[in-house]
Design goal:
The chain is α/β, with parallel strands linked by helices. The protein is built from 11 helices and 8 strands. Helix 9 links the parallel strand 7 (about 210-215) and strand 8.
Length: about 280
């Protein structure tokens, strides 16, 4: 998929690239990528989202061609940027889809701004990495020693653990090249923030219906962590992608798009019924 990115400067001075497709008046679906990725991580799934939806994939601060401040890579920073983005785009509300780090930011945004979230999709998500020894070991051994520029080999090793099935060669090369655009300080602070932050209490404040999407071969987050999310988010349910890894929307983009569209349609139907009452 070609990359025809637009750029928008937020009121806080941060500039974010984004790609938009579909009907400008259609139902808005905003896509938030994982750590070291960019809006291009949604290239595969965007091909399968119907054009009567307004889908927008954002590159978050510190990543890709976005602004890269010295600090500010915690969930509240990413969520704050999302709010400013929606306000700048004159979007009162949207469906928010977040993957991994993006799902953590989406959790914070949904809890802080319930009126702006019509529905929430969390892919490869978690409540905290505080008790996740695998993630902590990875951060200690592979992330904290990184220096700039990020070695291609280091980014390739990281990305190889984010999927469990065969992906197109061009896509794998692209996500690796996007990863090396994030400075080492972004890798480190974003990862530390996911270890030091616990959303267990915050999740109970999420009012939007929430769909969890998780691959059974996720090398970062277990099914027990999905159960924790289900126990904290009031209106959530889980779809398991058998055989997929941490990025099921990469590995089965058609199914992921279909599941998201079905989720959006179900909520829209409920909204229409409520409006008639």
């Amino acid at each position: 998929m070609s990359d025809n990115a637009h750029f928008i400067e937020l009121n806080n001075g941060i500039t974010l690239p984004y790609v938009e497709q579909g009907d400008p008046s259609g139902t808005p679906v905003i896509l938030l990528h994982g750590v070291t990725d960019s809006h291009r991580s949604f290239d595969l799934i965007r091909e399968h989202i119907p054009t009567d939806y307004r889908s927008i994939a954002i590159t978050q601060r510190g990543h890709g061609e976005a602004s890269k401040p010295d600090t500010g890579y915690w969930p509240d920073h990413f969520a704050g940027d999302l709010k400013l983005f929606m306000e700048a785009m004159r979007m009162e509300s949207a469906f928010i889809v977040g993957h991994s780090m993006g799902s953590f930011a989406a959790q914070r945004f949904a809890a802080d701004n319930p009126e702006m979230v019509r529905g929430l999709v969390l892919i490869g998500s978690f409540t905290t990495c505080r008790d996740n020894e695998g993630v902590k070991d990875f951060v200690k051994q592979a992330v904290m020693p990184l220096t700039d520029p990020i070695p291609f080999e280091a980014a390739a090793a990281f990305q190889s653990g984010t999927y469990a099935t065969l992906l197109p060669d061009w896509f794998v090369e692209m996500v690796i090249n996007e990863s090396i655009k994030a400075p080492s300080r972004v890798w480190k602070e974003a990862c530390i923030s996911m270890i030091d932050t616990d959303h267990s209490t915050l999740l109970t404040q999420i009012k939007a219906r929430t769909l969890l999407m998780w691959g059974s071969r996720d090398s970062f987050f277990s099914v027990d962590e999905q159960e924790q999310l289900l126990s904290h988010i009031p209106r959530a349910w889980l779809k398991i992608y058998d055989g997929a890894g941490h990025s099921p929307h990469w590995e089965d983009p058609q199914r992921a798009a279909d599941d998201i569209v079905k989720f959006v349609q179900e909520i829209a139907a409920v909204e229409r019924k409520s409006a008639r009452v």
